[in-house]
Amino acid sequence: MIPIRSASTAQQVHDWLYRCVLRGDLLPGMRLSETEIAAQVGLSRQPVREAFIRLASDGLAEIRPQRGTYIGRISVRAVLSARLIREAVESDLVRMVAASRPDLTAMEAELELQARADAAGDVPAFVESDDRFHGAMAEAAGHPAVWQDLERLKAQMNRMRHLSMRVFDRSATIAQHRAVLTALQAGDGDAAETAIRTHLRQMLTELPEMVRTHPDYFTD
Question: What confidence score (pLDDT) does residue 7 get?
Answer without folding.
Answer: 45
